Amino acid sequence: MKMQERRLALPLLGVLLWVLSIHSGTYAGATLLPIPATGSGPLRSSVDQREPPLPEAYDRLLVTPTDLNDSVVFAERIVETLRRLEANLVSADVMLKEGTPLQGEFAAGKPEEEALQRGRQALRAVEASIQLVVHMCGSLSYKDCSRFMNRFTMDRTPLGSTCEHLDKKCSPEEYGFMFRSADGMCNNGKNGVWGEAFTAYARLLPADYLDGVRMPHRAVSKQPLPNPRLVSLTLVKNTQIPDNDLTLAVMQWGQFLEHDLSRTAVSLMIHSDNTIRCCSSDGYNLSPRYIHPFCSPIEVPQSDEYYHKHNIGCINYVRSVPAVRPDCSFGYAEQLNQATHFLDGSQIYGSTANKTESLRTFYNGKLKVSKSNDAQFPPLSSDPTKDCLVSSDSDVCFTSGDPRVNFEPLLTAMHTLWFREHNRVADRLATLNKDWDDEVIFQEARRIVIAEMQHITYNEWMNKVLAPRYVRTINRLSDYNPQTNPSVSNSFATAVMSSLKSLYSGKIWLVKEGRLENASVLNLHEHYNKPEVIRKPGVLDEILRGLTTQNSQKLDFAFSDDVVNKMYSDGNYGYDALSLDIVRGRDHGLPGYNQFRTLCGYPLANSFEDFSDVMSQENIAALQKIYSDPADVDLIIGGLAETSEPSSVFGPTFSCIAADQLLRTRRGDRYFYSNPWQPKPFTSEQLKEIKKITLARIICDNADDVKQMQPEAFRKLSENNKLVNCDNEALIPKLNFIPWVNGREKYSY
Fold this sequence. Notes:
globular; about 750 residues; 13 strands
């Protein structure tokens, strides 16, 4: 489909259903978001149905092909001017220092080469869009002008080659491939790049930028929004409130899922790919001549006792890598997702064919592993001092499909489980099918493992974090729909899933068999990007028992000090994760909480008191202390302030955004395990076996020596969820591989 045709293709029935649902007053309860109740239709088009029509003045505004070309040429000159600045920064060594919290932050968002290449093209498109807005629209609104520029694509400009990939036409062979691609390409036959790695996050609402394109927006008063660190200091409570029903596994699975679906890239220098530092080496603001335009550091408030005690006046933040807009149009900036947008185990297998190949042994379908005391762990990094906060190349540092594998011990334990599960499944398939070669074994094992992850997410985890009405709706609308765009929304990745850091505890329990006592505890801040502890004998099992014993915390403003003061700690000080999430939301142009609340069916709040339908008076009063207008409240802050819904981790707005994502992730994935219309569907017998799988079984099968587990690993031990032996297949069912014995089926790959 041509670019112009694609932009004009509107989901008319979906828009009608959305409009009717809003005007009938049934929107908040009956649908997930203002997308069709069926979950179909593109997420966005160049004519956005959630904003009023443009003023008539734009009908008279003439933009010629010459104007578009000139804007791109101007953008090239702007980008070229960075060359001298970046050379000066390199010469002055204004770059990342190993062994600092900045290194930990960078490791989480380290950009792949493909991300950098696409980001360079997107940066030129952004600069060209700024030029068009400034010079074509005069006194007209920047935001409206940016929307107007969405009508024009880059097809016939010097950036036209950028658009070719977005119009990917999948061949019959690509579309009919039995196994999903590593990068998500051609999952959808008509829209080959939907869900592909290194494409833009989707938007549930149009971006909100001060200049209409990329400058973070301001408060209603036109003043800067509150300092992110001051917001954190004002709102965060010291005392955490445990959830008496859910285990810490709920948080950890949420993070594991987040890393499967999203990986935002940190920008590097355009002309040299060197790292960018936005604060001085002694922890304060840089001289203006050393500030890269991608910098958006957080100034530490004078009242900040913690950071001033450590002589820190500046928290580093480098803006995210931009992405070319999905329709290749001019307009506001999008951000790039390095992961595939599918729930496909990319945090284990990687999001490119090259990454997947680097993790394979190419023998009997197995993944590479490292060994310690005869136990298997993810393979070791080839560059430990860059990938982890360690001082020597002999120190332990792992590699996986996602570089965040080393982030903290609970996450490393989860990666370890799934590396082992893949190889366990591959062993069973190889034993039962002597005629299968390495490729068939690997792809079949990968397909089973992905199906297990999908089943655990939708059958166990989802009903712990979402209210029952959302779970029912998602289950009712579960059939594959090729019109559903699975792309991960920016608001889901940047705000909703980031809020799960509130569930962390600063103390990680190491629990002995029987669960009667702890062996010891780990201080979370001592183990960021330092995974060596997990290889000590018995520790992996103790972590897994702790993960399924220790309470999850509530989703609220009660954060562990290890998260809001000591993230990526170097032993001296760390970063404030909440402050970084606030500034990242602004960097990404996320509209305020009030707009998302309205999107999810609640009335627009004209006063802080209007938040009382979803927030406590205590939280409303706290917001008033730091924000001057309800429209200024950041999305992640508003979501944390909401009272959790019954039987749900999230409040109403985050439930709504998360439910939308989980619906589209399932409905827009042609290879989702339960879809009978994929090229090689599971048989009914195979599906029956996959649906037996629980997180408890994955732990039992892949821990070193865990002998007992409760059937519902996401719930606390109770009379209805007692410890049982791992060999109790009646309560913790095992997957039977007999349905995969098949010597008759022909494979093509």
